[in-house]
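Re-running the complex after MR caught last week's input typo. The corrected sequence lines follow. Everything else is unchanged.
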Amino acid sequence: MIYFLCGLLFLVGLSGILLKRNLIKIIISLTIIEYSLFMFLALVGYKHKAVPPIITSLTEKNNYVDPLPQALVLTAIVIGLATTALLVALAVRIYEKYGTFDIREIRKLKG
Amino acid sequence: MGSSSITQYLLPVLVVLPLGGALLIQLLKKVSKLISDIIANFILVVLVVLVFSLLNNPVLVYKVGGWMPVKGIPVGIYLVLDGLSLLLLIIINMIGLISLIFSISYMNKFTNKPLYYTLFLLMITGMNGVVLSGDLFNIYVFLEVAAIASYSLVAFGTEADELEASFKYQVMGTVASAFILLGIIIIYSITGTLNLADIGRVLKDKATETPLILTGILFLVGFGLKGAMMPFHAWLPDAHPSAPAPISAMLSGVLIKAIGIYVLVRIMFNVIGVTPIFSNMMLYISAISMTAGVFLAFAQWDFKRLLAYHSISQMGYVMLGIWLMTPLGILGGLFHMLNHSVFKSLLFLNSGAVVYGTGSRQLKRLGGLNQKMPVTGGTSLIASMSIAGLPPFNGFWSKLIIIMACIQSHHFFLAALAVLVSIMTLVSFLKVQRYAFFGELKQASKDIKEVPFAMCFSMILLAFLCTTMGVLLFPGAKELFIDPAVNVLLNGKGYISLVLSR
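Corrected-run output:
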């Protein structure tokens, strides 16, 4: 069920990028895509009724959650932060130059 | 320790050195104006020397942090150097050095030179990391390092159209990264490992076809976007011309190969394994890129935009060769990749020199530049003949091999198409030569001068490479540079046991 929601969120973001005409809304859509992936990545490591992977003795055999995806999610979030920050900075500069966030009016490049 | 040789400790240096240099430039930029030039160029010279010293080595594996495999299962991040990585390393660092030499004079018209060098070195870091990494998630991280550096470099001029191009590029790039990350997550959930070799080992035992087809398509879309294959090319003709000329040379000459084609080829050939359907699909994609790219280039009057469309077309040649999957085809594809990086970066540097001299890159406003800028004109003539595939320049040899490989594997239509595209390329570059460098000198450009020494030097160096690189096909040089890379791809899943045994 929750995997399905991740997929839905991904599609929401993707359609946002394709349909929205405002730069800021495009950036938000990109962030939604990223978050759906982070959630999916965290879910991959999830196990039902498992305990945190803190190993106190070597003989103990518990049902541990996979810790690797959690580390990966952190890395991915940091990368996502960098991308979003750069995008927002660009959007601000574009607003200074063009005076609009509307992508229909920002089209000097074509051909 | 599998192999106790000292050379494997050079692998992290290739990543750490430019990263440290990027930091150092920011720390020391107040000391002197020259210091960033010196640091950046010095680091690239060291990198080039290091890379060439790694030639003729067996497969090297460096385990980051000293995490030894447990019961044969790798736990840490691996850096792997084999023939294919080495070929890419040569391309990245050599073209990087030459572009940096060009930048010394060219970037004077921009205000923040130290920042430029920092971003440049970060891009080199990212690309070196991508080609060396033997770990899927690590590839993603380095890919983003290179990509984010390149986004900001495209916007470096902060003019209206540059910002627009960079925004477009970045939206496309982020979507591509999302697809790649999704593919990586799915692979992790199937195999429970991220090490490339280990993924291959686990997949060998499991018969899970459907998720693999899905990941194949996700990677195709993701790396197709990054590498500007034809249905996903829309950002490239905006982004590549908008960047400063040395960066255009790096993006077109190196970046789309290192983070687009290389990673896709590595994952498909060495880890997942290529199905006939997938390779046929790639053949069609490359044929479409090749043809449509050259047709779109035909209509362009902007010098750099024309070159950007030709990049799409030439990458089609590279992929056509590689995805024929025959030894001759792979040889041609990889050799064309090497050649393309040389002549395309030369052409972009030429366009940079033209912009530097005249301030315009519209072909209709130029003319007769040969009289005033003989070095730029001469080198661009060599590069044009090289990209059009005239003997004896390097482009001729690799295209010849690709066409021969097409005929050998009975793809006569593709062979005919390759010849046709080559002729179209020739016509297109005759137009460039006719309008920009021959003909009458325009009144407006009466008092232009040849560009400064550093720019001339790097262009002459690349032109020299264009003329002589056909030599690499002769026995001796061939075994040293190209054959190891070809063997990596021919060996296919042999990569797995090769890496895991170290």
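None of the earlier attempt is carried over here. The first helix of chain A runs from residue 2 to 19. Chain A touches chain B through 34 residues (CB under 8 Å).
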